[in-house]
Automatic annotation (TrEMBL):
Transmembrane segments: none
Biological classification of the source: Bacteria, Pseudomonadati, Pseudomonadota, Gammaproteobacteria, Vibrionales
The protein's name: Succinate-semialdehyde dehydrogenase / glutarate-semialdehyde dehydrogenase
InterPro entries tied to this protein: Ald_DH/histidinol_DH (IPR016161), Ald_DH_C (IPR016163), Ald_DH_CS_CYS (IPR016160), Ald_DH_CS_GLU (IPR029510), Ald_DH_N (IPR016162), Aldehyde_DH_dom (IPR015590), Aldehyde_DH_Superfamily (IPR050740), Succ_semiAld_DH (IPR010102)
GO MF, one annotated term: succinate-semialdehyde dehydrogenase (NAD+) activity
UniProt xrefs under CDD domains: ALDH_F5_SSADH_GabD
Coiled coil: none
Organism: Vibrio xiamenensis
UniProt keyword list: Oxidoreductase
PANTHER family referenced in this protein's UniProt entry, alphabetically: SUCCINATE-SEMIALDEHYDE DEHYDROGENASE, MITOCHONDRIAL
Catalytic residues, chain numbering: E249
Amino acid sequence: MDQIVNKSLLNATCDASEEAIAVLNPATEEIVAYIPSIPTTEIIALIEKSKQAQKLWQAKPAAERSAVLKRWYDLMIENADDLARIMTIEQGKPFAESKGEVNYGASFLQWFAEEGKRTYGEVIPAPAGNKRMMTIRQPVGVAAAITPWNFPIAMITRKAGPALAAGCSFIVKPANQTPLSAYATAELAYQAGLPRDLLIVVNNHSSVAVGDIFCSHDDIKKLSFTGSTQVGRHLVKQCADTIKRTSMELGGNAPFIVFDDADIDEAVKGAIASKFRNAGQTCVCANRFYVQDGVYEEFVEKFIKAVAELKVGNGLEDGVTIGPLVDAKAKESVLGYISNAVEQGASVAFGGESLDGLFVAPTVLTNVTQEMDIVQTELFGPVAPVIRFSQDQELVEKANDTIYGLASYFYTGSIARAFHIAEQLEYGMVGINEGLISTEVAPFGGVKQSGFGREGAKQGIDEYLNIKYMCFGGL
């Protein structure tokens, strides 16, 4: 393994003890490392160090900050194979997907290295001749983030990139299931020249305890969270006491819609890519499939055939396209959704089995109706419930019948229908004849109870900047 990445793991890991956090390989259920649980008192001390480092970082020219981010990007690309191997070992996704995430995560560093040089203010026409008015944009200060296990690198760089480019310091609490990816990514940042107090990784047995500190500490001016809607609600309430800037990327329940004028072969390809990436453990993956009467049988037949070609196994093995679920609780939850749907009248058209270890066979359910519990929840697993519909307006009402509003997808051959449906769907992101929509150049985020704020694109850096208005009088 590359010396740079290997060094990060040596620095991060520790011997087994009551305080240590065990990191498991979900494909084998073996412990691959122990990492230290940092005491809360030490985390508070690290926040003070971060505050001091931020003041120095803010004073540097934007071009200098940009150069560091570009070097960090280069190192991630150079070490992509090793980073991907670490990710697959601790998270479970197939190696090809892990490497894709490394490249995706690195892209935010490259993007915001440039955007950081474009945090322009403006000159405002004054109402009186003896005044001049202008605005500037300044970093919020110390930014903190809590990131999930399903994208253990990209969810860090998507937040750290704009924060650091804007002149903020950044403290991140990665998921306890996937800390090694975080430490390896941070080590490359240090190798790129980023001071260690500017990018701090903290882990503790209690995510709640770390969240309490992040939300209540006066020196943390911004909190970004990616995770469940339930936890997001709690964090927003906690941040209210310090009137902290927040951005929330929360749960999803994405509809995937196939109209009768769609290219069915393309729709099936998009469905496979959207649903079964990361074993269905993504917030933007297709969660429920709506197929119009005229193409229902054709789509289901071709979809099942494509699902049958997926290979389940250890993500480090050649040809594997579906890895394990992240832990036993996740597997139990997914199997519970399948069982409950069958009890409510759904049919298992393909799959449905519990496989050895933490694996679940990719599954297609038919005879699903809108009222079933499986339609109203975020599955986070390789299960595709398929629902038949007739009329467009009926479809729109069903697709919007959820508290979530993150991503949505539909396939149609009509440009008129494309605009009509896209505008009516109550989601922050819409994929039209496309199953993969995430990119660093477009704003990522949701509406309703899927959260607020945007990541990526030119909007992403705004989350880490304050606008200051300056009025010059007596001129």
